[in-house]
Amino acid sequence: MSLTSHIAELRRKHQALSMEVEKAARSPSTDDLTISDLKKQKLRIKEQISRLEQAPA
């Protein structure tokens, strides 16, 4: 997998998590811990994308 395609896949995962966080936030049955975990996953992916984009080619 090339670096570009790996970053693209991470961006897709980040977007999917964004939608999941929004859906969970609107659902009264979702607890704050679940939402917090989703946001942490999203942040880890964002940090990974940033590291990969800054890495020398």
Which shape, going by the Cα principal axes?
elongated
Give the averaged pLDDT, no decimals: 95
* Succession of helices and strands: HH
Q: How much strand content do the residues show? A: under 5%
| Main sheet characteristics | none
Number of helices: 2
Structural class: mainly alpha
Unreliably modeled segments: none
- Total number of strands: 0
Kindly state the percentage of residues in helix: over 70%
Alpha-carbon distance between the termini?
14 Å
What Rg is obtained from the alpha carbons, in whole angstroms? 13 Å
Provide a descriptive summary of the structure in words:
82% of the residues lie in helices and 0% in strands. The radius of gyration is 13 Å and the shape is elongated. It has helices at 3-26, 32-54. It has two helices and no strands. With 57 residues, it is mostly helical. It starts with a helix and ends with a helix.
Keywords:
57 residues; mainly alpha; 2 helices; 82% helix; 0% strand; elongated; DUF465
Put the structure in a nutshell:
This protein has 57 residues and is mostly helical.
Topology:
Blueprint: H1 3-26, H2 32-54
